[in-house]
Specification:
Elements: H1 2-30, E1 38-42, H2 46-59, E2 63-66, E3 70-75, E4 81-82, E5 86-90, E6 97-101, E7 103-117, E8 120-135, E9 140-145, E10 147-148, H3 151-161
Antiparallel strand pairs: 1-8, 2-3, 3-7, 4-10, 5-6, 7-8, 8-9
Helix pairs in contact: 2-3
């Protein structure tokens, strides 16, 4: 029975392949998660590196605060975050309908750690992105993860490298 299924599938594979490949590409593109951690090194000691990175990020409009491990930088500027509209389900009435809701607020955040090395300081970071949405159907707010544009990671790398 398995052999019959394999032979049937194999003969229809050329027909299914043009449909299967785009579907697999779309599924892979939809799998989003946090961006991979980034890192860069500088020849400066830790404290001057923290000060330089903080002042560069502040000049670019980010809110920067010191943490036990280094810095936390946040921004609500739309240039860092890409949030797609959310598809909200409306169960009221006779039928079920869906309403696309645009993002109301965007948030980009970077947790930045500074580690001394023999050659200076290793600066590593993890970025995250979220959007706040207003569900017009039931008048509630909700958050969901968004994607980054890559601008924050490039800014962090250039801030470390001076």
């Amino acid at each position: 029975m398995l052999e019959r299924w394999i032979s049937r599938f194999a003969t229809s594979l050329p027909v299914r392949l043009p449909v299967l490949v785009p579907v697999l590409v779309l599924v892979a593109a939809c799998e989003t998660g946090p961006p991979p951690p980034g890192a860069a090194t500088t020849s400066e000691p830790v404290e001057p590196a923290i000060d330089d990175v903080a002042s560069t990020l502040e000049r670019e409009g980010l809110n920067v605060e010191r943490t036990a491990d280094g810095l936390r930088a946040t921004s609500d500027a739309s240039g860092f975050t890409r949030c797609d509209p959310a598809n909200v389900r409306d169960d009221s009435g006779d039928g079920t309908r869906r309403v696309f809701t645009p993002v109301s607020e965007e948030q980009a955040e970077a947790e930045i750690q500074f580690t001394p090395t023999d050659a200076g300081t290793r600066v590593s970071w993890q970025t995250s992105y979220s959007g706040r949405y207003h569900n017009r159907v039931d008048n509630t707010w909700f958050e969901r993860s968004c994607e980054g544009t890559g601008s924050l990671e490039r800014l962090l790398e250039s801030a470390v490298q001076g």
